[in-house]
Amino acid sequence: MSKARARHVKAAASETPRLASPVTHRCIVTDSDVEAGVIALRRKCVYIQAAYDLAGDPPLRRRDGGFEGLVRIVNGQQLSVASATAIHARVVTTLYPFTPAKVLSAPDDVLRGCGLSRPKIKTLRAVAEAVAAGLDLEGLGEVPEAEAMARLTAISGIGPWTAEIYLMFCVGHADIFASGDLALQVAAQQLMGLQSKPTAREMAAIAERWRPHRAVAARMLWAYYAAAKKQGPALPV
Fold first, then answer.
1. Pick the CATH number of 66-171 from 3.10.20.600, 1.20.1290.10, 3.30.360.10, 1.10.340.30
2. Cα(141)–Cα(124) distance, rounded to whole angstroms?
3. Residue from 189, 185, 129, 176 nearest 157 by CA
4. Exposed/middle/buried for 148, CB within 10 Å: 0-12, 13-18, 19+?
5. Dihedral (CA of 84, 78, 237, 181) sign
6. What is the pTM of this model?
7. CATH class of 24-61+175-231
8. What would the pLDDT profile of 5-44 be if each residue is shown by its tens digit?
9. Domain residue limits, the chain
C-alpha cells in the first residue's frame, strides 16, 4: 500500500471518535436493539448519519442458529441466493432429520448429488464433527465475541467471514463486523470518499470507531449499499 493511500485510510479510520466500549457483550434480538444502535451511531458518526439519510433503519435480519444455521451459511457461500437456497433445501431434505450424525454418515456421492462441492462437503463434515464433539453453537451467544470467533474458526473450513456472519445474524452478537465482506468495503469507500476499496485489514481499522455497535454499523452499511445501487449507477463490485 502506498504512503498516500495509508494516510488516506488512516485519516478515515480516526476521523470519528470511537463509542465507549460496553462492560459486557450484548446481543441483538429485536428491531428495537437495532434502532437503539443506529441512534447511538448517528450521534457520533457523520458517515452512519449519511448512510441513514439514504437508507433509513436497517433490517434486523436474524436467522435460526445451531447446526443447520451454520450449515446454511456454508452452503450459501459464493452462490446466488436462489442457488444457495435450492442446494440447502436439497441437503436438509435428503438428510432428514438433519443432524450431525446424518452428515457424518452420508456418502460423498449423496452430498455431491445435492450440489455441494468437495470443499463444502469437507467443511460440513468438520462442522458436524465439532458439534458431535460438544461444540454448543447456540451457546456462543453467552461468551464474548473474541472467544466465540476463536471457537468457530477452529473448525476446518470456517473462516472469519463465515464466523462473523453466523455470530451476527444467528446468535446476535452486537459488536461483530465482517471486515472482509465486499459490500461493506464498497459501501465504506462510497460513504467516506476513499480512492479505492479498503482491504479487510483497513476495513477492520475503520470499523473500530463503531464499537460497541459494529454489528449495527454493518447492517447500516449493507442497507446503504443496497439503496445506493438502486438509486445510482452500479457500484464497482
1. 1.10.340.30
2. 21
3. 129
4. buried
5. positive
6. 0.87
7. mainly alpha
8. 555 555 555 555 454 444 346 799 999 999 999 999 999 9
9. 24-61+175-231, 66-171
